[in-house]
Design goal:
By secondary structure, the protein is of the alpha+beta class. The chain has two helices and three strands; from the N terminus they run ααβββ.
Length: about 70
């Protein structure tokens, strides 16, 4: 049987919402967060822009992770 659940995490940041959003749209900054050095993962496709749904594909040792 498969069970689905939601996990919610929150964090207070010292930066403004616009600074956090701008960093999230920066491919280099986002790659450092999502695919850290030594993880064996890398961004293959990274296409996000304000207002779109975005497309991200991360390659890892066990296969591709689209989201």
């Amino acid at each position: 049987m498969t069970r689905h659940f939601t996990v919610t995490c929150s964090r207070d940041l010292k930066h403004s919402a616009s600074q956090v959003f701008a960093t999230w749209l920066d491919p280099d900054a986002r790659a450092r967060f999502e695919t850290p050095a030594g993880s064996g993962m890398s961004h293959v496709t990274y296409a996000t822009a304000e207002g779109d749904n975005g497309e991200i594909l991360i390659e890892c040792p066990t296969g591709s992770l689209p989201y």
